[in-house]
Amino acid sequence: MDTLAIVILNYNGQSFLAKFLPTVLAYAEGHPVYVADSASTDGSVAFVQDNFPAVRLIKLAHNGGYAGGYNMALEYIRTHHGGARYYVLPNSDIEVTPGWIAPVLSLLESNPKIAACQPKILSYSQRDTFEHAGAAGGFVDKLGYVFCRGRVFATFETDQGQYNDNQQVFWATGACLFVRADLFHQAGGFDTTFFAHMEEIDLCWRLQRLEYEVWACGQSTVYHVGGGTLPKSNPHKTYLNYRNSLFMLYKNWPADGWLWGKILLRLVLDGVSSLLFLKVGQWRDVQAIIRAHFAFYGHLPYLRRQRKALRQQQKQAVALYPYSIVWQYFVKGKKTFRELRDL
């Protein structure tokens, strides 16, 4: 069994593989590197075979998104390659740095209660600035909205070493997720209904309900292009983010009381955010938010079953940020993580 398997999920990302795979191989620290290809049509498979013979290639039969693709790839590694104690799942548009693995592995090895971890995520284009997808570790507020150390909504902090510590967080980013292999499989992996976006937050929530912890490691840094598969302005990305946020909240919210009140308030707040899209002429994003809510209601039978099963498995309640991040940011003017109350 390998100590760590580095697993990159690829879908039509040949340009990113050409740019970033050499660095991953150079700084792999002796750990095997896998590329799991989700039935790409851009020649990615042949490109990897011809140029990177050291890479272990997994050919998936179809594109199951981030959630389905990684579930299939990691199960394949477990059953065909003897498995690994830990997985790290860097996006294909991640640039790793020398020594990026050792500090995270050391943190995981120091505490068996840590199930998942992430390095600092900085922007590839603005290298002194935290990147949107995870920054220095994430949290969830009482309405299911997510934010990070280093990034709250559209405010991105400059990295000045303020998050160089190792810190327990609520969720670790899927842009570069380290996770214990046995716990990943024990928890059921990613929820494939999510397809992409927020499936890692859902997984981190479930791992904590099983009495494990999630951390961010400030001694490891990677750089993220962001929007490699879906640009930030893509309406489908808007749809997935709004829909999956509701999925996650309904599945995992710890008590029946007030749940539907929170869903109703989310409907109002999401409606307000759609007006902001409307103001700048992004009609398709407004339609995406409407579709996201209808999709949530359409999935309620499935979500109810998931909610019931999770409550039966739960070993401990999980604490959320007890305030509304929307209120703190837009009304109270708290723009950075360190300005927020009770964190």
From TrEMBL:
CDD domains, alphabetized: GT_2_like_c
Keyword Glycosyltransferase tagged: yes
Pfam families: Glycos_transf_2
Glycosyltransferase 2-like domain segment(s): 6-184
Source organism superkingdom: Bacteria
Entry annotated with the keyword Glycosyltransferase: yes
Gene3D superfamilies: Spore Coat Polysaccharide Biosynthesis Protein SpsA, Chain A
TM helices/strands, residue ranges: none
Keywords: Glycosyltransferase, Transferase
Family as reported in the entry's similarity comment: Belongs to the glycosyltransferase 2 family.
Name recorded for this polypeptide: Glycosyltransferase family 2 protein
Organism name: Spirosoma liriopis
